[in-house]
Amino acid sequence: MSQPAKTSSRSASASDAPEGTAGTRAAAQRLKMRRELAAAAMELFATKGYEATTVDEIAAAAGVARRTFFRHFRSKEEAIFPDHDDTLTRAEAVLDVAPAHEHPLDTVCRGIKEVMKMYAASPAVSVERYRLTREVPALREREIASVARYERLFTRYLLAHFDETDHHDGNDDPLLAEVAASAVVTAHNHVLRRWLRAGGQGDVEAELDHAFAIVRRTFGSGIGAGRTAGSGAAPQAAVRTEGEVLVAVARTDAPLDEVMRTIEEALKNK
């Protein structure tokens, strides 16, 4: 009687393992099909023109039925951007697991790098997509809508760290959080467009880091300056005056921009 019990145990274990594997495989197959449909759409748009291309032709070029196309995309203009949903999920995951000591603006900069990685993974495809979006208003509008989704995600993240209802005198965090989120997205898009216009050539990551450094210098030192000592959060850095000397004490994991902001505020109040 012991043998059947072992067989049953193995069967239960085997049925559990493929469940997660099957889900991963299905997601990979879905993304693969979306990319194949997008490639077929881009080729037809380039050869026949956007307006002259039909959904039926895109499906046929990809070797699938019309109904398969509509299981993946709602319209032909949507088919030109197959990876944005997945990229948005990855960007959100970066925000979700951010270390507690990291400045929220730095976290947002890391999150939007997932978007650049998507474009940089296939430079030739990205350059061709950029050319098409410049020529076809419907595709350009779709691109703008996609960008807005990232901007909303990052704005929500920053506002969640700084109470958007707390508008007491001296607290500009809600305003700065929203403006900073837009600035990060704008800096990213500026670097991306310049890279695409150059045919996908150049060290785009280095250019992106430079742009983000400008955003952090402009907005990073201001965000959080309006938080009060009674907010319950332990300060990352503190400054005391000893005669004509300022003495700064900071946690070893404190963000450098927060330490510098604390020192700057103390110097202003001298």
Topology:
Blueprint (H helix, E strand, L loop, with lengths): L1 H47 L6 H8 L3 H7 L11 H13 L7 H17 L2 H13 L1 H25 L11 H25 L6 H17 L16 E6 L2 E6 L5 H13 L2
Antiparallel strand pairs: 1-2
Helix pairs in contact: 1-2, 1-6, 4-5, 4-7, 5-7, 5-8, 5-9, 6-7, 7-8, 8-9
Summarize the structure.
This protein has helices at 2-48, 55-62, 66-72, 84-96, 104-120, 123-135, 137-161, 173-197, 204-220, 256-268, and strands at residues 237-242, 245-250. The protein has 270 residues and is mostly helical.
Question: What does this protein look like?
Answer:
The chain has 270 residues and is mainly alpha-helical. It has helices at residues 2-48, 55-62, 66-72, 84-96, 104-120, 123-135, 137-161, 173-197, 204-220, 256-268, and strands at residues 237-242, 245-250. Strands 1-2 form a two-stranded antiparallel ribbon. α5 runs antiparallel to α7 (137-161) and α8 runs antiparallel to α9 (204-220). The longest helix is centred in the N-terminal third of the chain and has 47 residues, at 2-48.
